[in-house]
Structure formats: structure tokens, C-alpha cells
């Protein structure tokens, strides 16, 4: 079995209200074929693509958790999360975060095979989801801001707080009060650590982090995503078709008011910065180099070359990655871009099935957040009736007056806010 392999617990997320003082900034991506309703997303407030950013070839460097970075980068388009304000998409907070269990950003060691970044930890894939799995879709973002779950006020003391890094990708350790880079970028502000980039565990399984709807006690929860082979806005999107049959496990570290039910805004380098952009400062690049504000590198390449010319689009994204991530300490970002292009197939808002699962240790080691001590029971997808108290705890601002509701995801907060 895979070290720290997830145990299927069943169920989609259920919502819990946010602290009223949270400043949220969303960072989602927009689909090139759909209208962007909120600053985050493709369609009505959803964060769609997170194009990729990439950086030159980075010789696979492995992290302390055994994962490796690869060469080149993958692209993700779309959403960005911001550290203090909320603009459609995923939100990252201006608070500070701790470097979790990983220090700094880039890691060393590791290798890539066949253009796909692979992890140093091998093992079996998790068991498939059951018939009661929820319907959802994935988008992407990377705005370099501090995550919502990087502030102690947003996490239970028992589970820990997501770490942050300075502009040079050096960990802030347990100093969680460092202001977010999106509240004013400077060398010592709190940025997203490069170690948060997604990576492949095998040819069919990847790990990463994501922003989820801003309607619950989401910090540190993990979800198993199984891609269906269809695009959310364009069913025959070539990347989404190619991605079908693969599985990803993501840990929720951020939220988005315009992230709708069942949407996972996957943290992907070059995925688009959205309303808040600390990446131009941190990486020393122009806004144009980052691609479309909502959609990032993939959206720019798709607009230039056409969605049907998929191999050319993938090459375009990798070239743009190489233009951005060309510094020695950007290996993990470059590998994240390559992962997006190769393992993730540069998929544009792919549909998926999902359920909440136990978190793999590799994700816990990077984020520093472990919900295990809570010994909680996870509600199933569609989980039966919701009490008045549970519904009253839901913060419905994410719905944008109902525009972002989407399909019923079975959660108490969807019932309370959209039912």
C-alpha cells in the first residue's frame, strides 16, 4: 500500500461558516468558452482553468516528503487567490502562515519519466470511489498569496495551520502573523510556498492542494477526485478527455466565495492570478508573462492557437513556463507546470467524481495541517437531512445571490443557501 494511502471515508464537504473578519480573495480561472461571472471564474463565479506557468526545465528536485520535481513545467490557468480581498475565486488571506513541515520551497532530488513528474513514494492507487460519489469539476489558480488556512483564526488549534514562505521561498516557520503578500508584497511578506505545487505519485495518481467553496470548516480536509474524461464547459475538451480515468487527492487549504458547490480550484503554478497578484513581484516578471488574469498561461495559449490544436497548446504552455521559472530555486514551480501539461494533460475544467477521504501523510507533511486529532465523522454525499443549527451556521455569501449555486452537491450549506 502507498505510504499514507487515503482511507475512503465517503462524502462531499459540508459547510461551516467563516469568521466574519476573514478577508477573502478568490483566485479562480476562467474558461475560454464561458462567461466569467465573478472575478474568479469561468462561469458564474466558478474558478476555471488555472493555466500553467512554467519555468524552464528544472532538474527534478525532491522534497523532504519524497516527492520529486520534474523538468519543465505545466501550465494552469485561471483563478487566483488573494490575500485580503475577495474577488471571485479562491481566497487567500493576508494573515501569515507557517511553513508547515516543509521549509522553503524548492526541493532537491527526484526525477521525471516520460515528461511526467513522479514522486519518490510509490505504492498502490487508492480504492475507487463508490456509486454515491459526488459530481464536481476542477479549475486552477496560483496567485502567490497567503492561504485562508494560513491564519490561526481560521483553523482549529488541534489541527495546525498552513505554512507560508517569504519572497525567496524560505519558510516563516511558526510565525503565523506575517501579513499576506497580497496585502502589500515585500521580501518578508507571506507567500504561497513552492512546495504546494502538485505532483504525480504515479502515472494514474497525483497529490496537491486546492481551494474549495467558502462555506465550511474546510481547512485540512482531503478529497479524492476521479476525472471522468469530460470537460465541464466543453465536453470534448482534448485535455479533459485525455485526463479521464486518473485520480488526484487534494487537501483544502484555501476558500473562494465564487467557488461553487463541487468545484475544486487546484493550486497550480501559472494558473492565473485573478484579482490579486503577488506573483509578478515574487517572480520578477510582467503581468503579461503570467498569461490571462483569469485563465493564466493555458487560456493565453488556447486563445492564440485554438483548443483543438492541443499538442501545440501544450508546447506553448511549456515554453511560457520556461520563460518564467528559469531560476534555480524555482524547480518545484517548473515541475508543477510540467505536471499540468503532461500528467494533467493541460485539461480545461475537467469534470470529476469526488468524496472526502483520509489525508495522505505526504500532504499533511507539506501543509502542516492534520485533522486526525479531531476524530470527526464525515457526512456522506447527500448526507441525509440537515439540522436547523447546521444550516444556520452556513455563510451563503459565496452564492452571489444564487448565481454560483450550480448543481446540488448534497451539502447542508447548498440546501441552506440554494435549496
UniProtKB/TrEMBL annotation:
Record field: catalytic activity: Endohydrolysis of (1->4)-beta-D-glucosidic linkages in cellulose, lichenin and cereal beta-D-glucans
Superkingdom of origin organism: Bacteria
Active site: 143
Listed Gene3D superfamilies: RlpA-like domain (2.40.40.10)
Region (Disordered): 29-129
Alphabetically ordered keywords of this record: Carbohydrate metabolism, Cellulose degradation, Glycosidase, Hydrolase, Polysaccharide degradation
Biased composition (Gly residues): 69-87, 96-113
Pfam name, any one: Glyco_hydro_45
Family per record: Belongs to the glycosyl hydrolase 45 (cellulase K) family.
Name of the molecule in the record: Cellulase
Amino acid at each position: 500500500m502507498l505510504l499514507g494511502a487515503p482511507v475512503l471515508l465517503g462524502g462531499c464537504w459540508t459547510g461551516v461558516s467563516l469568521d466574519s473578519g476573514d478577508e477573502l480573495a478568490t483566485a479562480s480561472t476562467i474558461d475560454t468558452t464561458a462567461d466569467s461571472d465573478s472575478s474568479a471564474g469561468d462561469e458564474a463565479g466558478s474558478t476555471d482553468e488555472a493555466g500553467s506557468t512554467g519555468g524552464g526545465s528544472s532538474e527534478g528536485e525532491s522534497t523532504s516528503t519524497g516527492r520529486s520535481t520534474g523538468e519543465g513545467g505545466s501550465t494552469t490557468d485561471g483563478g487566483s487567490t488573494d490575500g485580503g480581498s475577495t474577488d471571485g475565486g479562491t481566497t487567500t488571506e493576508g494573515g501569515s502562515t507557517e511553513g508547515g513541515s516543509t521549509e522553503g520551497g524548492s526541493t532537491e532530488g527526484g526525477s521525471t519519466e516520460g515528461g511526467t513528474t513522479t514522486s519518490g513514494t510509490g505504492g498502490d492507487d487508492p480504492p475507487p470511489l463508490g456509486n454515491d460519489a459526488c459530481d464536481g469539476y476542477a479549475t486552477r489558480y496560483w496567485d502567490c498569496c497567503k492561504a485562508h488556512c494560513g491564519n490561526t483564526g481560521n483553523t482549529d488549534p488541534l489541527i495546525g495551520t498552513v505554512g507560508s514562505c517569504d519572497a525567496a521561498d524560505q519558510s516563516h516557520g511558526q510565525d503565523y502573523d506575517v501579513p499576506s503578500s497580497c496585502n502589500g508584497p515585500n521580501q518578508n511578506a507571506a507567500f504561497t510556498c513552492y512546495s504546494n505545487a502538485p505532483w504525480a505519485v504515479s502515472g494514474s495518481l497525483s497529490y496537491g492542494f486546492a481551494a474549495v467553496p467558502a462555506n465550511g470548516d474546510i481547512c485540512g480536509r482531503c478529497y479524492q477526485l476521479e476525472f471522468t474524461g469530460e470537460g465541464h464547459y466543453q465536453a470534448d475538451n482534448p485535455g479533459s478527455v485525455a485526463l479521464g480515468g486518473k485520480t488526484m487527492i487534494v487537501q483544502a487549504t484555501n476558500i473562494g466565495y465564487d467557488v461553487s458547490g463541487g468545484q475544486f480550484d487546484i493550486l497550480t503554478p501559472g494558473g492565473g492570478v485573478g484579482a490579486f497578484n503577488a506573483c509578478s513581484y515574487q517572480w520578477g516578471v510582467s503581468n503579461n508573462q503570467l498569461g490571462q488574469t483569469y485563465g493564466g498561461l493555458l487560456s493565453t495559449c488556447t486563445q492564440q492557437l485554438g483548443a483543438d490544436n492541443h499538442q501545440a497548446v501544450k508546447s506553448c504552455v511549456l515554453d511560457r513556463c520556461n520563460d518564467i521559472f528559469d531560476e534555480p530555486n524555482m524547480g518545484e514551480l517548473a515541475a508543477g507546470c510540467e505536471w499540468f501539461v503532461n500528467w494533467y494533460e493541460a485539461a480545461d475544467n475537467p469534470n470529476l467524481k469526488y468524496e472526502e477521504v483520509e489525508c495522505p501523510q505526504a500532504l499533511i507533511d507539506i501543509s502542516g495541517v492534520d485533522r486526525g486529532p479531531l476524530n470527526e465523522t464525515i457526512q456522506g454525499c447527500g448526507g441525509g437531512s440537515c439540522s436547523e443549527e447546521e444550516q444556520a451556521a452556513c455563510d451563503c455569501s459565496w452564492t452571489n445571490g444564487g448565481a454560483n449555486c450550480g448543481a446540488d452537491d448534497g451539502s447542508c450549506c447548498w440546501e441552506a443557501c440554494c435549496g
